[in-house]
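Tip: read the tokens left to right.
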């Protein structure tokens, strides 16, 4: 039995500042709404390098010490889609949006008023609960 499968590797990062989190309003129709910024891991790139690069590309911010806090995964045709979930509150630089979507700071208390991606609550649970990993 062959146990080798194709895996598409991606990263998301919750950048937070006190009671605010940085969210991206995705423009692609495959996963519409506000979520954490991130993207694909490039060939020969570490996961940490990928999350640092993706956050810089999509937000303009330079993050430091992103901490792996869990994974999200689901089956896709021919394999599996794997998302490594990171978070950090260490960043510098000037915030900007990108072609991927509008970036904005949202207070945790205001999340109910934002159009979030369908599975955002599950992502937040993994990000916030030290007992969860997926």
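Filled-in amino acids:
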């Amino acid at each position: 039995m062959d146990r080798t499968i194709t895996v598409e590797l991606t990263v998301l990062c919750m950048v937070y500042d006190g009671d605010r989190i940085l969210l991206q309003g995705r423009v692609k129709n495959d996963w519409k709404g506000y979520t954490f910024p991130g993207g694909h891991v490039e060939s020969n790139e570490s996961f940490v390098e990928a999350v640092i690069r993706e956050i810089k590309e999509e937000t303009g911010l330079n993050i430091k010490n992103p901490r792996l806090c869990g994974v999200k995964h689901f089956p896709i045709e021919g394999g599996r889609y794997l998302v490594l979930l990171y978070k950090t509150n260490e960043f510098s630089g000037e915030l900007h949006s990108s072609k991927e979507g509008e970036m904005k700071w949202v207070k945790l208390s205001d999340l109910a008023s934002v159009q979030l991606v369908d599975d955002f609550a599950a992502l937040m649970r993994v990000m916030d609960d030290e007992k969860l990993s997926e």
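Residues 106 and 112 are 10 Å apart (CA to CA). The two ends are 26 Å apart (CA to CA).
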